[in-house]
Input
Amino acid sequence: MRGDRGVSGASSRNKRSSVGVVSYVERLVASSLVACTWEQRTTIGQQQLIVPDACVDLIWAGDRLSIAGPDTQPRVVTLAPGERLVGARLRPGTAGAVLGVPASELCDVSPDAADVLGRDVAAALLEALAAGSDPLELLLRAAQLRGVGAPDPLVRAAVLALGRPRARVGAVAAELGVSARQLQRRLSDGVGYGPKILARVLRFRRLQALPPAPLAELALDAGYADQAHMTAEVTRLAGMSPVRFLKDRTPTAA
Output
């Protein structure tokens, strides 16, 4: 199953909509690599919508440890009754450094952690999670210790720049002193996809963070050209209209 990063929470909530009884709590952490740890429990079987957020998660689900790569499109997964998921969410742009592989190799997939971290590392972490009393802290520590190199500072700067309303890829590349091709390659390695898709996803996240308002106003505040542009983009990334998607939703930590 692709990683399920939660549907309702404490510090922020509802990256994905669902039907059923779900308990989801996030714990924000002071880390340059990890945005938060989180835990989700379901009491009945249900389907859950997953939407792009430019993040990569390390997820423990009892007998499986997996990595949820960066999404480019929405998907629906089925959650089993009584399922418990615990995760650590990496900040956008840090996945390549933490996991030691180009983040583009994880795009739209959810491999077993053993295939990325190595079987011995994954087996040891699974054993510790099964025996430990605080899986949130264990996953956080594993993500922080796993870092095989410092995140690319240009990628971090690009994430911040492309997160600004009405940011343009060409202007951001020029601002950072690199060519558009260099920006594409380095973002693909660090985030999982290039600047155009990243800008689209970050704008989508920005929309989710806005307080309720008329759709035309939300579109402009989020950085869309107009309401029609917002409708097309939200439909592409969430598989539904802005009215349906934004109901009872706020972003999770990233």
Residues 6-19 have pLDDT under 50 and may be disordered.
